[in-house]
Design goal:
Elements (H helix, E strand, L loop, with lengths): L1 H27 L2 E7 L6 H20 L8 E7 L4 H14 L4 E3 L4 H14 L2 E4 L9 E2 L2 E2 L3 E3 L4 H14 L5 E7 L4 H15 L3 E8 L8 H10 L3 E4 L3 H13 L5 E4 L8 H5 L7 E5 L9 H11 L5 H20 L4 H9 L4 E3 L2 E5 L6 E2 L2 E7 L2 E8 L3
Parallel strand pairs: 1-2, 1-3, 3-4, 4-7, 8-9, 8-10, 10-11, 11-12
Antiparallel strand pairs: 5-6, 12-16, 13-14, 14-15, 16-17
Helix pairs in contact: 2-11, 3-4, 5-6, 11-12
Amino acid sequence: MKFKQICSATLITGLCLMLVSGCSAQQTATIKIGGNFELTGEIAAFGINGENGAKLAIKEANEKGGVLKRQIEYISTDNQSNAAESTAATTKLVTQDKVIAIIGPMTNADTLAAIPVVSANNVLLITPTSTDESITVGDAGLNKWVFRSCFINAFQGKIAASYALNTLNASKAALIIDQNGTFAKSLAAGFQDTFEKAGKQIIASEEYTSGQDTDFRVMLAEIKTQNPDVIFIPGWANQAGVIIKQAREMEFDTVFLGGDGWGTGPITDIAGKAALSNAYYVDQVALDDPALADFAAAYKKEYGQDADMFAALGYDAANMIITAIEQADSMDTEKIREALENLTDFRGITGTITVDPVTHNPEKSAAILKFVEGQKVFAARVDLQ
């Protein structure tokens, strides 16, 4: 009898220990978030910095106690700047590592390659920099599990038009549009739609082909007769620099506006410092914006180098996921997805973000940069909300 009592007591004690141990393990289980970034290959610089921004956000969250009383476990993969490898990296993160969300990739092609995998497995994906509209809304409609922290190309045009209307007090605008690809066309469409809806006039719309046209004097002469308040050039730095240089040589004193393509090359070297004295462009972020000071300092301390746009958008992408998990108060990916889809007034470092539930695109403020002695500096933040 005594032996049976001892055995029973031992069994009960063991069961209690197992229950306590099981509860403890459940409470301390990590939240797995994956990274699918271009860490090698053609655009490794973008991917490395994007991942660094995401990792910094996760580190800061963990230092504050994590999320839902759990630490975040970040699992990195390298898609080698290759769409096929992006599919493979996504498959590994979803099927082997069992992540609940993925940050990245950075390019449209690599992100599009990841979408079928996350969609089939109900795993969230948020890209920091893929701007193609089909990323979140494809031919079949909304990509339910896909989001982004960057704004799309047409949105840049809307921001530029808003700045022209409300800060520059423009009532007449001219467009000079690159017909090579969809980038400039998307920006131009966004600008024209916003400008004309405000009751203002697009007095000229000229077209050129990048890589082919180098002399813009004929179209500039035609535009000059219309006397626009602003000229919007939604192309790349190499072409915009030449156009502005030739315009100033023709004694244009008009304000020039552009999109983030102006930040992709040596526009100052091409146009000259003086030519850019009355020129502005839209970008995802301005690193000298006072709102980024704390992030810039933390990034420099962590990595020993200055942050860039890719790092800032990676940081915001990670924090959008973290905030959605907190608001969902759950590890269930459907509940997290719903929280992210309804994210409102999220204070990111690249702007205050509200996710459009219809498109999964962020509605956010954007940076306007100007040129001072040829240097790109923060001018303003523009918010369409």
